[in-house]
């Protein structure tokens, strides 16, 4: 973000093409005007005398009284295109040229006839008045055009500022607004190479040091009140919020003709308001993130304490029973208690694995090590892992034949499908089956896992993918950390797929237990592509 630079057309676009054309025309006129000012006296004095041969040609066809009109036209032209001072000089020179060549006696500036004297005096008076009025009109027109131009810039800036999301966006919008005057202004911000701008190079080292100190000011309410004084003292304008100085604008207003200072200051005020708005928005976002993190930690503790306590209590109870009453228990009772301990330990292991997987997803450490695997192999492994959980339910699978192999991280895909079926088992009534279908749909391999439970309302279907959703709802009737579907979605999205939830199409008529279906889509990968692909998310 250095000194003002770049191409002006990119700043304003086609809609405000005038915003680029007008400053170019104005710059061209200023160059011409500077050239004319440089040679003002020679032009003002000599031009009427050089025009005299043309005046002689006019007298061959028109009365001599029309000659002053030619000089008046010249005076008006100079007044419009240069300055009234040069027009007055030109009018005086025209007076003497007319007197020398056309007033009796000719070839002398002496005038003997009252008629010629009156004509010359009227000519001089008319030239001065017309020149002054023409110059004044030209200045007014240029002021109006400049105000229109500044209004266009202000409107465009006011359109950009509400869309600015951070301080950098606001500064860039201001930088673009200043592009037409890039040679006569420099926007000084932190980390810029602003010292290379011509306006800064002409400054002394002491003044450059002052600018650096102003840029590093830490603002307080008392210091903010002193900003107008500092602006006058150092000939800069501050861009700031209520905490710090964002930048300094040094602009040579004297070199930018007809710049309306009121509009310019209003523009700066709007920028400072936007800088404060973005600061407040950033602070609110930080507070929101901190609050969400706190809620997340609370949800995690609540979930872990609830989901770990139940199996731990069961394990402690079963183990203490075996220890205290082992001599009075028969083999079947002891085996049943040990099975209970094993089931609850496996349940704790699943919870722990879910938490570890969620941590990997949250910190972007999930490493995909893909290989080719068939759908049948994935489902077979998942069913083996689910066998201890299928006490009151069973799985009905329907895998379409001739499905292509998948190029996936097998363990992650197994974990994703396991989490969905595990969730379906928790919310399915006894003796209800879990339907697992797998088929190809275009360039996707689709898994649908449908249960016969109470279903999920449509407005809640997106929320179930949020971390600890179950814990946040305070649902203690079903075990679960609320991470299963979140982890499933993260793992599937890591493979370029997606997970959605819909109603069970086989149970549309059942209002009490409509069930739900989790749909997992994975892209089909050609066998010759990405054989050794490894990607990290």
TrEMBL record:
SMART domains named in the record: HATPase_c (SM00387), HisKA (SM00388)
Name the species this protein comes from: Cellvibrio fontiphilus
Which regions span the lipid bilayer?
A: 12-32, 39-58, 70-103, 115-134
Provide this UniProt record's keywords sorted from A to Z.
ATP-binding, Kinase, Membrane, Nucleotide-binding, Phosphoprotein, Transferase, Transmembrane, Transmembrane helix, Two-component regulatory system
According to UniProt, the reaction catalysed is:
ATP + protein L-histidine = ADP + protein N-phospho-L-histidine
- SUPFAM superfamilies from the entry? ATPase domain of HSP90 chaperone/DNA topoisomerase II/histidine kinase, Homodimeric domain of signal transducing histidine kinase
Annotated Gene Ontology MF terms? ATP binding
Per the UniProt entry, the signal peptide is: none
Domain Histidine kinase per the UniProt entry, residue ranges: 303-526
Q: How does it sit in the membrane?
A: Multi-pass membrane protein
What InterPro entries has UniProt attached to this entry? HATPase_C_sf, HATPase_dom, His_kinase_dom, HisK_dim/P_dom, HisK_dim/P_sf, Histidine_kinase_KdpD, KdpD_sf, KdpD_TM
User: The organism sits in which domain of life?
Assistant: Bacteria
Which Pfam families does its entry note?
Answer: DUF4118 (PF13493), HATPase_c (PF02518), HisKA (PF00512)
The subcellular location is:
Membrane
Q: What is this protein called?
A: histidine kinase
EC number(s) stated in the UniProt entry for this protein: 2.7.13.3
Q: Which Gene3D superfamilies would you find in this protein's record? A: 1.10.287.130, Backbone structure of the membrane domain of e. Coli histidine kinase receptor kdpd (1.20.120.620), Histidine kinase-like ATPase, C-terminal domain (3.30.565.10)
């Amino acid at each position: 973000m250095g000194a003002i630079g770049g191409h002006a057309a990119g700043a304003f676009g086609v809609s405000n093409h005038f915003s680029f054309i007008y400053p170019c025309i104005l710059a061209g006129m200023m160059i011409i005007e500077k050239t004319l000012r440089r040679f003002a006296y020679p032009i003002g004095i000599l031009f009427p005398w050089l025009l005299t041969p043309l005046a002689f040609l006019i007298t061959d066809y028109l009365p001599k009284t029309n000659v002053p009109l030619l000089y008046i036209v010249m005076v008006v032209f100079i007044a419009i295109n240069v300055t009234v001072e040069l027009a007055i000089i030109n009018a005086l020179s025209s007076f003497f040229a007319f007197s020398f060549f056309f007033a009796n006696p000719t070839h002398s500036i002496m005038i003997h006839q009252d008629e010629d004297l009156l004509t010359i005096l009227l000519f001089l008076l008319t030239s001065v008045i017309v020149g002054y009025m023409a110059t004044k009109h030209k200045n007014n027109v240029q002021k109006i055009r400049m105000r229109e131009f500044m209004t266009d810039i202000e409107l465009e800036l006011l359109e950009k500022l509400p869309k600015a999301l951070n301080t950098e966006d606001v500064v860039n919008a201001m930088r673009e607004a200043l592009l037409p005057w890039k040679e006569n202004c420099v926007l000084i911000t932190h980390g810029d190479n602003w010292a290379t701008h011509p306006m800064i190079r002409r400054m002394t080292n002491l003044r450059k040091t002052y600018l650096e100190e102003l840029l590093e000011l830490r603002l307080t309410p008392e210091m903010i009140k002193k900003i107008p004084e500092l602006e006058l003292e150092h000939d800069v304008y501050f861009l700031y919020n209520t905490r710090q100085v964002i930048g300094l604008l040094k602009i040579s207003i004297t070199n930018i003709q007809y710049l309306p200072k009121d509009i310019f200051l209003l523009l700066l005020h709007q920028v400072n308001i936007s800088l404060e708005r973005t600061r407040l928005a950033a602070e609110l976002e930080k507070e929101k993130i901190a609050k969400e993190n706190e809620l997340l930690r609370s949800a995690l503790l609540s979930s872990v304490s609830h989901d770990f306590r139940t199996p731990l209590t069961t394990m402690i109870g079963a183990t203490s029973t075996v220890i205290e009453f082992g001599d009075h228990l028969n083999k079947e009772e002891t085996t049943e208690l040990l099975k209970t301990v094993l089931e609850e330990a496996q349940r704790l292991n699943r919870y722990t694995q879910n938490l570890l997987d969620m941590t990997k997803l949250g910190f972007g450490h999930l490493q995909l090590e893909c290989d080719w695997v068939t759908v049948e192999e994935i489902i077979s492994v998942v069913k083996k892992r689910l066998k201890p959980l299928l006490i009151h339910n069973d799985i009905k699978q329907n895998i379409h034949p001739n499905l292509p192999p998948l190029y996936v991280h097998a363990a992650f895909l197994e974990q994703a499908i396991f989490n969905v079926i595990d969730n379906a088992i928790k919310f399915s009534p006894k003796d209800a089956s879990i339907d697992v279908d797998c088929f190809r749909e275009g360039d996707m391999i689709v898994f649908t896992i449908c249960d016969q439970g109470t279903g999920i309302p449509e407005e809640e279907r997106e929320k179930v993918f949020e971390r600890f959703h179950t814990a946040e709802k305070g649902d203690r009737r079903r075990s679960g950390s609320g991470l299963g579907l979140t982890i499933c979605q993260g793992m599937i999205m890591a493979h370029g797929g997606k997970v959605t939830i819909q109603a069970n199409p086989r149970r549309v008529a059942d209002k009490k237990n409509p069930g739900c279906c989790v749909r997992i889509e994975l892209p089909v990968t050609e066998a010759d592509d990405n054989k050794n692909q490894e990607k990290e998310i």
